[in-house]
Amino acid sequence: MDDQKQFLGDSPEFLSVIRAAGLVAPTDATVLITGESGTGKELLSRYIHNNSRRRQQPWITINCAALPESLAESELFGHAKGAFTGAALNKKGWVQAADGGTLFLDEISELPLSIQAKLLRLLESGECQGVGHGQISRVNVRVVAATNKHLPDLVREGGFREDLFYRLNIVPLTLPPLRDRLQDLSLLINLFMARVSTKNALPQTRFHPKALAVLRAYSWPGNIRELRNFCERVSILNAGQTLVVDDLPVEMRQGQDVPWAGERAAFVLPDEGLNFLQMERDLLDQALRRSAGNKSRAARLLGFSRDTFLYRLKKFSIPV
Ligand SMILES: Nc1ncnc2c1ncn2[C@@H]1O[C@H](COP(=O)(O)OP(=O)(O)OP(=O)(O)O)[C@@H](O)[C@H]1O
Ligand SMILES: [Mg+2]
User: Fold this and answer.
1) Cα(228) to centroid of ligand 1, in Å?
2) Is 0.85 topped by the overall pTM?
3) Mean pLDDT of the region 210-217
4) Which residues contact 296 (CB under 8 A, 6 or more apart)?
5) Taking residues 216-232, what's their average pLDDT?
6) Phi then psi for 274, rounded to 5 degrees?
7) Atom of ligand 1 nearest to the CA of 33
8) What is the per-residue pLDDT for 109?
9) Which of 176, 198, 230 lies at the terminal end of a domain, its last residue?
10) 146, 166, 287, 291: which has the fewest Cβ within 10 Å?
11) Ligand closest to CA 46
12) Alpha-carbon distance 240 to 243, whole Å?
């Protein structure tokens, strides 16, 4: 897998999607990938193809939003010579081009209703018929579809065929938004920052812990794409620096519940909560290690007096 295709995450939310994708990949089951914009749907679809038995076979991506309705049928299913003005030759469609491999239908919600019926037929029976073709041909295509829309809503509004929805939704995979898998944030930041600095031979940019906490509190509406673009920008414009809160764009700092903007709290409670006693013990250990056992210095690192620090060491039976 090349560098740009690295698919990283170690949050339980991400790993459970990857686990399910790993199970479905080697089968021929249709997969529907949902998730907000920029959550990695396209990357996940490649992951499925690359881990399937079809990995050496064609991989064809169609962005349904970019298919003009008038051309959609012939683009997808091909056409016969003379089927319409300008159809000078027989032409194969993308579906035939994907024969033996995987067809990725991105933004599936945008597929015109008239084509949805033909897609359903393809999924049910492998049959396809080009525009103006008398004969029906058969193809062996595995379909992976993706959308950032809520398809059941579209079905209710009449914009998407219900039967097609159920046929696509055999194995649904939902990528969580970045704000719901903050555990992945540091890993992804490191990946994107390292990628840009290596590529451009620039010194690596870092974040002050407080700046990092602002990034954790931000809602990331553009998800991983927004994070990647942001990391690329600061890696270039602030190469080699350690960015503090004031260096961050206003929209990331504004409207945030960033504690040190007011009370200067130094830590943001993770959404999933934490084990306070364990954290306290870990911090005491780390402070001792970092100060090479010098208790006054370790106490200062944690903002305690030496006595308070010693008291806490005793509490955890850490030898003093
Ligand atoms: N887990 C990940 N690890 C590394 N990079 C990722 C990950 N997820 C997404 N990316 C990167 O984020 C960007 C957006 O991903 P992708 O294009 O797959 O999102 P998408 O869900 O298809 O977005 P859209 O709905 O806007 O089409 C890409 O550059 C992709 O490489
Ligand atoms: Mg996409």
Assistant:
1) 9
2) no
3) 93
4) 306
5) 95
6) -155, 170
7) 21
8) 96
9) 176
10) 166
11) 1
12) 9
Give me the number of domains the chain comprises. Answer: 3
Dump pLDDT digits (tens) for 243-277. 999 999 988 987 554 444 434 445 677 777 888 88
Render pLDDT for 25-67 as a digit per residue (tens, 0 to 9). Answer: 999 999 999 999 999 999 999 999 999 999 999 999 999 999 8
Last residue of a domain, one of 176, 211, 233: 176
By most ligand atoms within 8 Å of CB, the mutation choice from 44, 110, 175, 225 for ligand 1 is 225
Q: Are 131 and 86 in contact (CB under 8 A)?
A: no
Give the range of the structural domain holding residue 229, as residue numbers without chain letter.
179-262
Q: Which atom of ligand 1 is nearest to the CA of 35?
A: 21
Task: Identify the residue whose C-alpha is closest to ligand 1 atom 29.
Answer: 225
Ligand 1, residues at Cβ distance < 6 Å: 6-9, 35, 37-43, 148, 188, 224-225, 228
Domain identity same for 132 and 52: yes
Question: What is the residue type of 80?
Answer: A
Span 238-243, average pLDDT: 94
Question: Given this model, what pLDDT does residue 261 score?
Answer: 40
Q: Is residue 271 situated within a structural domain?
A: no
Which ligand has an atom closest to residue 62 CA?
2
